[in-house]
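Box S2. Input/output pair 1.
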Amino acid sequence: MSDEETSRFVRIRAELILEVHDEGRVTGAALRRLAGDPELPPEERSLAEGAVTEDTAEALAYLVDPFDLVSEVPGIELQQASWSSERIDYDPDSPEWDLDEDDGDGHDQEEDGIG
């Protein structure tokens, strides 16, 4: 492809599995971040504080920000980001959690008779 035909946009997909050893520290860090956000209106701050206090996964969603991952990369501008967090049952020995698995197109290549 020539430079004219190549898109300037790149999608990076990442999946992280975190083991929480101290929920109180995670919640406290999220509450400190919320308290230090001068642009957050008081009513939204109150709702967010309740959410991060009730659910450690929600607290992590406030602490892990995709912008932080790329803000120092020269020559790029973040166009869009979304992320979520949830509690999961995790077994690192299960084939279900194979991070090398290619799941980009939403279905298994064997379904298409490939592979």
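Box S3. Input/output pair 2.
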Amino acid sequence: MSYRYYYEDCPPGTERKLGPRTITAEEIIGFATRFDPIPFHLDEAAGKASLLGGLAASGWHVCSLAMRMICDSYLLESASLGSPGIEECKWLAPVLAGDTLQGRSVVETARRSASRPGMGLLGLRCELFNQKDQQVLMFKNTGMMARRDAA
């Protein structure tokens, strides 16, 4: 299969735009009901009474939204081989119902795998911001990507 993006297309400094994506109360409640049923994720009044100030998305929901934005931006067109995990994840501000998120995925480092010659390893940083330009999420992970010369 031929892809648009391979390891060689992702040198350090490569930046891909993510979003925009508006989050609804129904999405927040639906995710929380299934995966993170804390009251401030399920009920507007409980959210307003909390430190979060309103019906707030679970941090795990925000990570899932970021992953979807990454897929829509470039990952589904890439020779991605997955990721061994996330090294760092910070939920920096609440994501409330009605917020519109956008952001970027940035390649910070790139190196060829020593043990798998057909693979490159990308050090990635994902950042999401709300409509007030307030950062709400940051995570860093390693992405494994096939090399074009090995495809």
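Caption for Box S3: Residues 59-73 form the longest helix (15 residues). Residues 7-150 form a domain with the Thiol Ester Dehydrase; Chain A fold (CATH 3.10.129.10).
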